[in-house]
Design goal:
142 residues; 2 helices
């Protein structure tokens, strides 16, 4: 009877150890998967950030160029204003300058809106791709 109880206890202990090992192995695997999942998420955000930084730099360069061009135009108008013969000619020159300046501002604003919209799309694309991959993995697992 004691030998039978001891055998059952050993069998029970062995079974418990096997199950504990299986649970531990699954926990390690889940942990590895979670680490990999998070690593890929961080890489996606870093890639999106790089795209955003590069795009912002390009938009900044464009705006600096625009500002220089406007400054040069304003300087030319100022120089030309010293050569006018009549007040009417001066007013007309200033009106033309203001009209042209307003047109340039509107064009540049439109260009900036387009550039920012395109940049947002490009920067979001890695995130959208990652979300799509996650959805596929969830559907496959379900």
């Amino acid at each position: 009877m004691a030998a039978k109880l001891q055998a059952q206890l050993e069998k029970l202990t062995t079974t418990a150890q096997e199950r504990a090992k299986e649970v531990a192995d699954r926990a390690v695997e889940v942990s590895k998967d979670a680490v990999e999942f998070n690593r890929l998420n961080v890489e996606t955000l870093v890639e999106s950030g790089k795209i955003t930084a590069q795009g912002a730099q390009e938009i900044g360069k464009t705006n600096v160029k625009y500002t220089r061009e406007n400054f040069a135009e304003a300087s030319n108008v100022l120089k030309s204003s010293f050569n006018v013969a009549t007040p009417k000619e001066f007013v007309e020159m200033q009106a033309d300058f203001m009209r042209n300046s307003l047109d340039r501002v509107m064009d540049q604003t439109s260009n900036n809106v387009d550039a920012v919209t395109k940049l947002a799309g490009k920067a979001y694309q890695p995130i959208a791709d990652r979300v799509s991959t996650i959805r596929k993995e969830i559907k496959k697992a379900a």
